[in-house]
Amino acid sequence: MVVSMLLALSTCPAMLGSQEAIRQGQQKERREEHRARRCHLVVGCLTLSRRGRAIDGRQIVLKDNRLWIDTGSHVTEGHHPFTGYYLPFPDCKYEGVVSTITSVAPILNWIYIDKSTYQVKYGVRIDAEPNLTGPFDCTRQDRRLTFEGWEGFCAVEEEPDLWALYFDRDDNGLEGKKPPHARALEITLSRKEMKITTEELRRQQELQQCQSRAQFPN
Fold it and tell me: For this UniProt entry, which residues form the secretion signal (predicted)?
């Protein structure tokens, strides 16, 4: 009886440790699964003004190597909707974000913050590396996009009804960064995950292989 009790006491911590390792492994798998899903970005405006209502609920789009808010205006015609996901940035210990840039070919570009202007841009690795490429992450509950651990994204009206995406890295209202007299509004970026299809499943499997090599895209 004493031997049995001692044996149970000695094996119990090991069993609990194994169960905890399994639980953490399952949580990590679920976390990586949602982060690898392609999603659109939807603007949430924190200002209830007329201009704020004009951009609230709008999608982020890509055009001319920059990210914009699609207000339905002719100035953003020919854009491509942000369609991206998280991916480890090459030779770094953090995750970046990539997006398709066209609907006719599976071409991906990195999303990054211009280190001089704080404009949010996209480009190939050689364009992104000299700038701010991460870490990108998301909030736990609502999975809103974050950069460097916080939500500092702003919409800047550079021209009438032309809203560009910036990141207020210095937390000073983009002083010295946005065009003179341009209006800036604080926003959030919510991830709207796309439907899982067989093609998307295949893409996720290919992504896992790419992550192991940590070389894509170049």
Answer: 1-17
The β-bridge relationship of strands 95-100 and 153-159 is unpaired
d(CA 130, CA 123): 11
Domain total for the chain? 1
Burial class (CB in 10 A: 0-12, 13-18, 19+), 37: middle
The candidate with the shortest Cα–Cα distance to 165, out of 182, 141, 148, is 182
| pLDDT mean by block of 10 residues, the chain; 218 residues | 53 52 45 77 91 94 96 76 95 96 90 98 97 96 93 95 96 95 95 75 59 46
CATH code of the domain containing 95: 2.80.10
The answer to whether position 9 is within a domain reads no
The DSSP output letter for 83 is -
92 within domain boundaries: yes
Quote the pTM value: 0.79
